[in-house]
Design brief:
- 35% of the residues lie in helices and 30% in strands.
- By secondary structure, the chain is an alpha/beta fold.
- The strands form three sheets. Strands 3, 6, 7, 8, 9, 10, 11, 12 and 13 form a nine-stranded mixed β-sheet that branches.
- The chain is globular, with a radius of gyration of 21 Å.
Length: 266
Amino acid sequence: MLPTFSKHCYRLLFCVGLLVYVGGSFAVTEPVRLVTEAWPPMSFEQDGVPTGFGVELVNQLQARIGQQEKIEILPWARAYAIANSAPNILLFATSISDEREAHFDFIGPIATSKITLYAKAEDPISIKQLADVSAAGIVGVYRESVGAQLLQQQGVTSLLVASFPQQSAKQLLFSRVRFWCQADLAVKHILEEVGARLEDVRPVYVVSEVNLYLAFSKGTSTDMVQRWQAELEKLKESGDFTRLYQKWFGALPPPLQHQIFWHKDN
């Protein structure tokens, strides 16, 4: 017969189960929650299964760390809000901004992308500087995106904000906006999702070139962030990172440098 345990004993066993003996001391090993957005080819769902470069990369890294958490694909604004609400949350892929520096620790970079304004292919518009944009027409952006933040910081006010990048692409194709602001890595896949082709649009202005990172919410332990970064470095040094990057981004050069940016206290 199995022994009968009191409620106190069960609580004690549960607490011990959350601990791992590391280097002569016990350390909490709460898994990191993984959140991202539908932003192909970085992250998206295919037949209900998360996939994409970022998804494959994070799954490889979490296997090396020793966890098997399901990746949640959410609207960007919701994913960002969740990651901004509690420790032990990993948000990907994101650029670094002044606002985000106060709330996240960043490791990477995992990709490099150009934030670009696109017009319809037949539109003859030429943009020499961002100051010309507001007078020329409305820009389609999606909520809380780096493109929206960069344009607002530069004084561009004629923005139509959508919840998803696919909505912004459709707004351009249906001439509801004159420009579409999007990272170049995702443009081809987003257009395909809405039944269009890359040849239907053309880049007219590069707003910024940015590196993209894995972002850990404020309060996540330093040890945990460093463990993920160490495994990312090993992946880059082994050549596996480059092979994965080329699988999804073709001939684009992968970022092989190693960086950690710790959050800045307010």
